[in-house]
Amino acid sequence: MGLSHAPIAAFRQGAIGALKLPAWIVGASLMGVGPLARDVGFPFLGAILSTVLVWAGPAQVVFFATLGAGASVPAIALAVTLTAIRLTPMTASLMPHLRAGGASRATLLAASHFVAVTTWVESMRRLPALPPEIRLPYFFGFGAACMAVATCFTAVGYALAGEVPASIGAGLLFMTPTFFTLSLLRGASIRADWLAIGAGFALTALFGIWLGPAAALFLAGLLGGTAAFMVERAQSEEQ
Amino acid sequence: MNASDWLTSNVAVFGLLVGAAVIPNGVWRWLAVLAAARFDDSSPIFAWVRHVATCLVAGVVAQMMILPPGALAAAPPWLRWAALCLAGLAWLLARRNVFVAWIAGVCALMAGTALL
What we know:
A: 239 residues; mainly alpha; globular; B: 116 residues; 4 helices
């Protein structure tokens, strides 16, 4: 670990860590954005920029889908922002790790742009094991590598739109939910983690019947997360 | 006027992307950084938001299974859930190897969709 104490080495270490698997999965998941953008008549450069600047698969999917459905600009912005609320607890829970090395507010705001499901799940697992002073450069390297690969994949998806057989197309879009699920399973260590995962699946499905997707997700996260938190507290008091 | 009418100029495309996607999405990340600055690292709020976020990620997966985006709809619901369960099972059998389990789940879904 000697060399890794230099920020540049940590940045490279993060990038290499991402390229071992996670970056390709983020890439595969954002490949689907290409054909969606092309379908609604969005230009190539705009599709690529959406991956770099939005950096959130669900928000991009909703943006292009509502645009294609002929919605007004405020309606599109509202639909997008509802999918993005989940980024707040994700980003907030990363902060104690990212600011451990004494980062400025501006640096943390810049770093927060890289928060997405895969980068969050992986960072929550990887960062605590690293010395505090190299966590931030590691995170930047990890995020930048994911973004570079994903941008190329969005471009490829745009170019290939409509040319892939249905089974391959379904498989590409299935890569992301499968990886998310497995990442959650790998990251789970205490009883509260399993409760949060189970509640996320069950409550979202259940509430979705009455409330529609956005409100169901929000409520499920709040209730399931709070229940898991209470279980964790109760357990730590027993010990 | 529909937003799709704007796609005729590059400036308008960029404006639409920033105004209706980049800002409404990014604002939740910036808010988190600013809000987190008010709390000490040892605050229980960080444990709470971590569980809420975990729960939300599981919820995002559930939604992708229930309301599949684009081409994933080519696979019927039972196949989507079966392939996801298979990936979880493969993870247990393959000594918690994520890559092996991931390949197993994705291949099962592709094969199933192709054969049906």
